[in-house]
Specification:
mainly alpha, 8 helices, about 0% strand
Length: about 220
């Protein structure tokens, strides 16, 4: 564990807590993409299967359990909660997210470190996570006006991956034989997708304006 890994984990945790706060207390999921949340649920379900086969630390296990629980809880709220589901903008959230799943799975079958069941699913989760934010970003561009909680959620979700890149760089120079090129490339692609959002987020924060994304 290093400061960059911890900052990344805390940013990720905070982003999910912000989204849960919005959904549970305000009873609204306006501006939130169900397609992205379903992709994240699939990401965590395929990545954390090792929770049943190995133990690293209590911290690691609790974080995995939280992300599994929270991702499926959010999907449930948006699909089935009597009040929350009414605020879901289905007409705007039209990104065909299922088109992302098959290419990521095929790529995982072709490009991986070890050809085992868990390793292929872990690699698939990396590829899918890299593009899972796309439906959310498209939805925000369509609606343009972004409420504070949703904007903060996306920002800290992007910050999590940015801190993880710093974590990988740190580990590369401080640990022997630390070379995870699949993880690095997936993380760089994911961070690059946030670049435009980061620009407008910081701009709105500096000017004390409501966050608006270009159409």
């Amino acid at each position: 564990m290093n400061i960059f890994r911890l900052a990344g984990d805390m940013s990720h945790l905070f982003s999910i807590l912000l989204l849960l706060l919005k959904i549970h207390t305000i009873k609204s999921c306006a501006g939130v993409s169900l397609k992205t949340q379903e992709l994240y649920a699939l990401v965590f379900a395929t990545r954390y299967l090792d929770i049943f086969t190995g133990y690293i630390s209590l911290y690691n296990t609790l974080m995995k359990m939280f992300f599994l629980w929270s991702s499926f809880t959010i999907v449930w709220y948006m699909r089935y909660h009597n009040v929350v589901r009414r605020s879901y903008d289905k007409d705007q959230d039209t990104f065909r997210h299922y088109f992302l799943i098959l290419p990521c799975f095929i790529l995982a079958l072709l490009v991986h470190e070890k050809f085992t069941f868990l390793e292929v699913l872990w690699t698939f989760s990396l590829y899918l996570e890299a593009v899972a934010i796309l439906p959310q970003l498209v939805l925000l561009q369509r609606t343009r006006n972004v409420d504070n909680l949703t904007g903060h959620y996306v920002f800290f979700l992007g910050a999590y991956r940015s801190f993880y890149i710093l974590n990988w760089i740190y580990r590369y120079f401080t640990e022997q034989n630390y070379y995870k090129w699949i993880t690095w490339i997936s993380g760089l692609v994911q961070t690059a997708l946030y670049a435009d959002f980061f620009y407008y987020y910081v701009k709105s924060w500096r000017n004390s304006e409501r966050l608006q994304l270009p159409a």
